[in-house]
Structure formats: C-alpha cells, structure tokens
Amino acid sequence: MGRSARFQYALGFSIACFMHFKLIQDVEQSMHRQKYYLSLIEKSENAQITFVEESNSESLNSMLFEAYFSRAAKFLLQSFNP
After folding, report:
1. Residue 66 and residue 48 in contact, taking contact as beta carbons nearer than 8 Å
2. Contact present, 43 and 68 (Cβ < 8 Å)
3. How many CB atoms lie within 10 A of CB 33?
4. Each residue's pLDDT tens digit, 56-70
5. 20-38 confidence digits (pLDDT tens)
6. Distance (Å, rounded) from C-alpha 72 to C-alpha 38?
7. Cα–Cα dist 29/26, whole Å
8. What is the CA radius of gyration of the chain?
9. How far is the C-alpha of 82 from the C-alpha of 72, rounded, in Å?
10. The whole model's pTM is what?
C-alpha cells in the first residue's frame, strides 16, 4: 500500500469515525428531546384526564382528546424539524 493509499484510507476512516460519533450524538440528543416532550405530554395528559373525569361529558372528552393529540403532534413535529 503506497503513501497516498494509506493517507486516503486514514482520511476515510477518520471521516467515518467522525460521522459515526456525530450520528450517535444526534441520536442521543433526539432521544433526550423525545423524553422531554413525552414528559410534557404526560403531564398535560394527566391534567386533562383529571379535568375530563370531573366533567363526564362525551363531547368534551372527544374535544380534549383531539386537542391533546394535535398539540402532541405539533410538539413532536417541531422537535424533529427545527
């Protein structure tokens, strides 16, 4: 293996390692964001469930259900598409 080939191999390997660790870092940050948003959604869900149990209205339940999922979807879409 000549000097040029070794240099190209080392450069390619270095770039691959960098991209691998960058990908791992991005995945970890994404998972951290997911956990954060899921905890927000869970807190919101608990508050809404308490309110829904107190109201006992089917139409109100469905409106809150739709509002909850649309808000959750909006949070998740914003977190994955900054």
Report:
1. no
2. no
3. 16
4. 555 555 666 666 666
5. 777 777 777 777 777 777 7
6. 8
7. 5
8. 23
9. 16
10. 0.37
